[in-house]
Amino acid sequence: MSIANPAWLAATEFLDFDHPAIKDFVGEKVGSGGTAKDKAISLYYAVRDGIRYDPYSSSMKREAMRASTTLLTGVAYCVPKAVLYAACL
Fold this sequence. Notes:
This protein is mainly alpha-helical. The chain is 49% helix and 4% strand. The chain has a two-stranded parallel sheet with strand order 1-2. Helix 2 (36-50) runs antiparallel to helix 4 and helix 3 packs across helix 4 (78-88). The longest helix is centred in the middle third of the chain and has 15 residues, at 36-50. It is globular and about 40 Å long. The two termini are 21 Å apart. The model has no long low-confidence stretch (mean pLDDT 92).
C-alpha cells in the first residue's frame, strides 16, 4: 500500500465498503452536497431506519457479519448494523 492509501483504510472481510451495493446505498443516501457531518448523520438514519432491527434474525456465521450482507438482507441486530454504518462512513 502507498502512503496515500494506507493498509488501515483498505476494505476488509466485514467492512466491505467496496461492494457495489454499499457504494450505491451511500451514493443514494448522501448525494453530492453537504458537510461530512451532514453525510454521517444521513447515513446514520438510513441504516437505523432502513435496516429492520431483529435480534432473533442473528447468525454467527462470518458472512452474516459483512456489511454487504446486512444491507442486502435488510434485517439485522445491533452489531451487523454498526458494521454496516462503519462501512458506509
